[in-house]
Design a protein that fits this description.
Number of helices: 4
Structural class: alpha+beta
Number of domains: 1
Strand content: 15-25%
Shape: flat
Number of strands: 3
Length: 78
C-alpha cells in the first residue's frame, strides 16, 4: 500500500454487472467520499459504494514479537 493510499483510505468504487468493482477515487475523509458519491448518483445511474481500505495492509505492518534472547546470554555467563 503506497503512502498516498495510506493517507486516503476511503474509496469510492463503482459496482459492475460482472461482479467486479472499479476504483473511482480515494479520499482522506469519509464525508468527502460520501459527498462525491451523492454528486455521482445524481449524474449517473451506475451503482457506487464507499468503502474503507485501511486494514488491507495494517495486519502485515504489525511488528512480529521479538524473541527473547536475554536468557541465552544469562546462561552463557554462568
Amino acid at each position: 500500500m503506497s503512502y498516498f493510499e495510506r493517507l486516503h483510505p476511503w474509496c469510492l468504487m463503482t459496482l459492475m454487472p460482472t461482479l467486479q468493482h472499479r476504483l473511482v477515487a480515494r479520499f482522506r475523509h469519509r464525508h468527502e467520499a460520501e459527498a462525491h458519491l451523492k454528486i455521482l448518483q445524481q449524474m449517473t445511474t451506475a451503482r457506487y459504494v464507499v468503502v474503507f481500505d485501511g486494514a488491507s495492509e495494517a495486519v502485515s505492518d504489525v511488528a512480529q514479537p521479538r524473541r527473547r534472547v536475554e536468557h541465552e546470554t544469562a546462561d552463557r555467563n554462568r
